[in-house]
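Tokens in:
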């Protein structure tokens, strides 16, 4: 393998890693938002229960 091929592979690996990391952050953000949304709905339901 030449040095150029090594650099290309490394660049691709880093780009894929960045994409994967971004997906993890999006998942975490949606997960945390979902938990808070459910919590607020539950608080609303408990406070307005008769």
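Residues out:
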């Amino acid at each position: 393998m030449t040095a150029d091929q090594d650099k290309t592979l490394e660049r691709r690996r880093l780009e894929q890693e960045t994409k994967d990391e971004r997906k993890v952050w999006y998942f975490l953000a949606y997960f945390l938002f979902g938990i808070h949304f459910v919590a607020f709905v539950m608080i609303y339901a408990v406070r307005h229960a008769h």
